[in-house]
Description:
- By secondary structure, the chain is of the alpha/beta class.
- It is built from 11 helices and 25 strands.
- The protein has helices at 3-16, 21-24, 44-56, 77-81, 95-99, 164-175, 196-211, 229-239, 287-292, 332-350, 403-425, and strands at residues 36-40, 61-66, 71-72, 91-92, 103-106, 109-113, 118-121, 125-128, 131-134, 138-140, 181-186, 216-221, 244-247, 255-259, 264-267, 271-273, 276-279, 283-285, 301-302, 316-318, 323-324, 360-369, 372-383, 386-389, 395-396.
- The chain has a 5-stranded parallel beta sheet, with helices on one face. Strands 13-12-11-17 form a 4-stranded parallel beta sheet, with helices on one face.
- Helix 3 packs parallel to helix 10 and helix 3 (44-56) packs across helix 11.
- Flavin-adenine dinucleotide is lined by residues 40-46, 65-68, 71, 74-75, 77-78, 108-109, 135-137, 160, 192-193, 196, 200, 286, 288, 320-321, 330-333, 335, 364-365.
Amino acid sequence: MSRTTxxxxxxxxxxxxxxxxxxxxxxxxxxxxxxxxxVVGGGFAxxxxxxxxxxxxxxxxxxxxxxERPFTACPFSNGxxxxxxxxxxxxxxxxxxxxxxxxxxxxxxNLIDTQxxxxxxxxxxxxxxxxxxxxxxxDIRWDALPGYNEAAADTMPHAWKAGEQTLLxxxxxxxxxxxxxxxxxxxxxxxxxxxxxxxRASLIAYYLKTRKPRSKLIVLxxxxxxxxxxxxxxxxxxxxPGLLEWVSLSKGGNVNAVEVASKTLVTxxxxxxxxxxxxxxxxxxxxxxxxxxxxxxxxxCPIDPVTFESKLVPGIHVVGDAxxxxxxxxxxxxxxxxxxxxxxxxxxxxRGEAPAEPKLINTCYSLVAPDYGISIAGVYRxxxxxxxxxxxxxxxxxxxxxxxxxxxxxxxxxAWFKTITHEVFG
Length: 426
Ligand SMILES: Cc1cc2nc3c(=O)[nH]c(=O)nc-3n(C[C@H](O)[C@H](O)[C@H](O)COP(=O)(O)OP(=O)(O)OC[C@H]3O[C@@H](n4cnc5c(N)ncnc54)[C@H](O)[C@@H]3O)c2cc1C
């Protein structure tokens, strides 16, 4: 059976069965033409989606649009900040993805015409699509914290997108005198990588303890609770007593302004003048999502949890950090899992079939010291249009585990990073 005949047959039977509106409301793809999928953003979500989709159905013309070469991964970038690894260990190219038949387009997608179904990249290359996947990750909300803007990030780095910002924070810590004060701020939910600020605090504390023991680290938090909290706090009491202080929201941790010239973080009660300041500001979906009209008032993208199609604009799917994914945290593990589900759904939709209901898994490892790992895992499924925790299916590392277990989890973390980056880019 030819591809066209088979597609027509699938469409016919799906229509007869009254299948989901998500594909019947679209005009059929021109007979004989390969369906076109453009994926914007070549991070954990977008690169996975493009590569997996091409593997599922080599007949689909898949294009991956990405601004940066190489890609710089955030997971394990806290290790770069602590001097435990080089930034080059975080960097990955796209050659293997291109070898698999994905067309690579270097540039920034900056315009989406949802009527004509096209994406404009750079200063004018127009790419038509039958379905579009947006995987732009996050952008910083530069308007959310008085005093903090793009110029301020040169002095008080956020390092929440890996690359130059990561190196800047590393260099500042290296240059700081022993006895200096490092001040970090962590934002309210939701944000990229819920345990990330606390892993960073841990590894900065490790650096200070081993290299600048008269120094101190204060973490100012806009929350009273955070991911893996008891595991982190128990480990801090054991490994970094007197060195790392966490200030919760109710104890006055919310940073409501910064004064860049003096590297000062301002809370409702106090001013903290830092030797090194790491501001992790509020975030939102990457800008192209806003331009495409797929963000809601929260700044994030509501999606259908079976297909990852936008609830606001048909024909556009969103995966990764940019989504509102119910209970699923914004992690690389999540982004990769969502992208696989989305790719499988896209292949079905383009054939006129109904996608299967998925179950998704997330696991997040954090290092509290180079040889001390902890983790959290969860399983999620669609319930009433939202991704919802499957009760009893997840959990965190035991609180009373011996050091050998923490040691083992640190090796699992390392193995996870090698596996996922190999799967996506290798
Ligand atoms: C310090 C830190 C530690 C972390 N540790 C972990 C961890 O241990 N485990 C874990 O699972 N997760 C971790 N994360 C979270 C993880 O990095 C993110 O959840 C993950 O990167 C999300 O993947 P994504 O594809 O949605 O976004 P990204 O990986 O950020 O990819 C988005 C890509 O889209 C590109 N892009 C954006 N807009 C456009 C456009 N208009 N045109 C072209 N390209 C565009 C960007 O250049 C970028 O390459 C950590 C994050 C941080 C900050």
